[in-house]
Automatic annotation (TrEMBL):
<dbReference type="InterPro" id="IPR013783">
    <property type="entry name" value="Ig-like_fold"/>
</dbReference>
<dbReference type="Pfam" id="PF22352">
    <property type="entry name" value="K319L-like_PKD"/>
</dbReference>
<protein>
    <recommendedName>
        <fullName>PKD/Chitinase domain-containing protein</fullName>
    </recommendedName>
</protein>
<dbReference type="GO" id="GO:0031410">
    <property type="term" value="C:cytoplasmic vesicle"/>
</dbReference>
<dbReference type="InterPro" id="IPR029865">
    <property type="entry name" value="KIAA0319-like"/>
</dbReference>
<dbReference type="GO" id="GO:0001764">
    <property type="term" value="P:neuron migration"/>
</dbReference>
<dbReference type="InterPro" id="IPR035986">
    <property type="entry name" value="PKD_dom_sf"/>
</dbReference>
<dbReference type="GO" id="GO:0016020">
    <property type="term" value="C:membrane"/>
</dbReference>
């Protein structure tokens, strides 16, 4: 079947995989440049350098895993590729001794090694009391096998009841609260080799004093990066500007408007005349002040649009 490399290195070196973390006992990137050779029956069958140009032990030019500014003739891969060959791709190296800046010696490939899985509990969520919240661990993966077991455990917040605790996706209903409350859940996954990893996700209900959109627009520096709560009527409906994203505008009784944005799109589409409550983070894109990562509650539909804000100024004429 052939032989090959799976090189584990440091995050700042492109095209060198560091699945097991860095530093670690099997991380071979320790110099600049650095390289590794594969010997079979006393012969070099593959030799790769990275973070610079090198010759192998027999004086031949090594294949380069990372671009060389002066000469990319021997560059092996493209952006984001690890050093992969046919053979036992996905198995780590055991390092007996480091040799920075030269060919690494005393490294043994363990073909029976098993990488741990990568747990992914999903992104943190902002929800409202009474919402059915889905915890989604389906983004978890195993680089050299399959995930065979999921376990969800609540680690913070008032007690809630999960629909299950051993599935990739589980759900619960956010309780009614009178103050900002966060629930934290720990997802542990196990692969077919018996290895485990875990990841946390936070679910928060914010209880905030509502502010006007006028206040946000006139005092952006104060609210930049802050979580706010506003109500307003949709003036430019969702799906009209960018169908592949949630992007629409609301206006409140102050007469000012603000963009609501989320990528990927939210499950619901909001139309002109919908009266909604929005909790999210204030930011700015180009010239638009916007609220991102929104949690939205529909309060009503077919509302009249608020009267627009009128700016009056002296142009010095």
């Amino acid at each position: 079947q052939g032989y090959g490399f799976y090189v584990i290195g440091v995050a700042t070196i492109p095209n060198v995989d560091y699945t097991s973390g860095f530093p670690s006992s099997n991380a071979i990137q320790n110099g600049d440049p650095d390289g590794i050779e594969l010997w079979v029956n006393g012969q070099i069958v593959d030799a790769v350098s990275y973070a610079g140009f090198m010759n192998d032990s027999e004086g031949s030019i090594m294949e380069e895993a990372t671009p060389n500014d002066s000469d990319d003739e021997y560059f092996e891969g493209g952006e984001g590729l690890s050093i992969g060959r046919i053979g036992v791709d996905g198995s780590p190296w055991n390092v007996d001794a480091n040799s920075p800046g030269t060919v690494n010696e005393g490294q043994i490939l363990d073909p029976n090694a098993d990488f741990p899985p990568n747990a992914n509990a999903g992104a943190d969520q902002i929800v409202s009391s009474g919402d059915v919240v889905t915890l989604d661990g389906s983004g978890s993966s195993d680089p050299d096998g399959t995930i065979v077991d999921y376990l969800w455990e609540q680690t913070a917040g008032s007690d809630v009841t999960l629909s299950a605790n051993n599935l990739a996706e589980v759900s619960f209903t956010a309780p009614q609260v009178t103050e900002t409350t966060t629930w934290t859940f720990l997802l542990t996954v196990e692969d077919d080799g018996g290895n485990t990893s875990d990841d946390e996700v936070n679910v928060t209900v914010y209880i905030l004093s509502q502010i006007t959109i006028y206040d946000i627009q006139e005092n952006f520096a104060t609210y930049d990066g802050q979580i706010v709560n506003v109500v307003g009527v949709v003036t430019i409906g969702d799906g009209l500007l960018y169908p592949s994203k949630t992007k629409f505008y609301i206006q409140d009784e102050s007469g000012r408007g603000i963009q609501i944005y989320n990528d990927p799109p939210l499950d619901r589409i909001y139309n002109r005349g919908d009266y909604i409550e929005v909790t999210g983070t204030v930011t700015q894109y180009a010239d638009d002040v916007e609220i991102i990562d929104p949690a939205i509650t529909l309060l009503g539909s077919d509302y009249d649009l608020p009267e627009a804000h009128t700016a009056v100024g002296d142009e010095g004429l």
